[in-house]
């Protein structure tokens, strides 16, 4: 087994445990590089973070290294969740609680999940492309989970399912939401629906914590601090 280091996180994996595309992204340092850089705009010391879409646990581990933070993370794919558990354990992170399952808005229900070769393409969307197998998962209500665990930050990368989740959930007590948008699945109309639904809940798009499809929505009161150098033009 090889011990990779990706974004400062120990990743004990072998090439045959992930697809060639994922392995190349890991060894080149491109794996979730934007998320690894920008998630720190959303997570602050002592936050209580709910992460949806653990993947292999690299972003999870980065979040967990923020002082005082506790992380509850959900991964739907059983084999990917097993890899994430290994990565989290290798980094000696006792403040991460990893679940294999899914959270949704509304009453718990049984949902199909489509496992694909590239783990970051696995999703509940059958139209996203060819899949290796279909599994069934029983969902848990996200609002109840957030309330029970006093969650302050939501981090999510769930391959398009964010649209329905953010529109239908209440997100009690959540102050910041950092997510990857998937406009190739629901278009600009889907982004409009997400933005409008979050605005009703009191969230605004935060340009200082967003980059491309990795975006931060936040609730904030008072004057925002000026960041020196943020608007300097470089050649």
UniProtKB/TrEMBL annotation:
Any Pfam family: Methyltransf_21
Key word rRNA processing present: no
Record's keyword terms, sorted: Methyltransferase, Transferase
Name the UniProt record assigns to this protein: FkbM family methyltransferase
InterPro entries in the cross-refs: FkbM_mtfrase, SAM-dependent_MTases_sf
Domain Methyltransferase FkbM residues, every copy: 63-203
CDD domains with a match to the protein in the record: AdoMet_MTases (cd02440)
Keyword DNA-binding carried by entry: no
Biological processes per GO annotation: methylation
Residues annotated as signal peptide: none
Organism: Phyllobacterium sophorae
GO molecular function, one term: methyltransferase activity
């Amino acid at each position: 087994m090889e011990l990779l280091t990706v974004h400062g996180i120990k990743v004990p994996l072998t090439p045959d445990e992930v697809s060639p595309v994922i392995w190349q992204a890991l060894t080149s340092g491109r794996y979730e590089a934007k998320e690894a850089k920008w998630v720190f705009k959303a997570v602050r010391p002592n936050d209580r973070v709910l992460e949806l879409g653990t993947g292999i646990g690299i972003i999870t581990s980065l979040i967990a290294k923020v002082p005082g933070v506790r992380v509850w993370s959900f991964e739907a794919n059983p084999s990917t969740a097993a890899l994430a558990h290994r990565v989290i354990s290798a980094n000696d992170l006792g403040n991460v609680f990893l679940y294999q399952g899914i959270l949704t808005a509304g009453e718990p229900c049984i949902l199909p999940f489509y496992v694909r070769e590239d783990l970051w393409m696995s999703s509940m969307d059958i139209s996203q492309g060819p899949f290796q197998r279909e599994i069934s998962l029983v969902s848990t209500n996200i609002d109840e989970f957030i309330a029970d665990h006093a969650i302050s930050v939501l981090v999510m990368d769930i391959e398009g399912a964010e649209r329905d989740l953010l529109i239908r959930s209440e997100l009690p007590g959540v102050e910041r939401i950092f997510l990857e948008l998937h406009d190739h699945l629901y278009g600009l109309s889907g982004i409009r629906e997400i933005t409008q639904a979050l605005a009703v809940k009191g969230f605004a798009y935060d340009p200082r914590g967003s980059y491309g499809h990795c975006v931060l929505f936040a609730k904030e009161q008072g004057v925002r601090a000026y960041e020196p150098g943020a608007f300097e033009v470089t050649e």
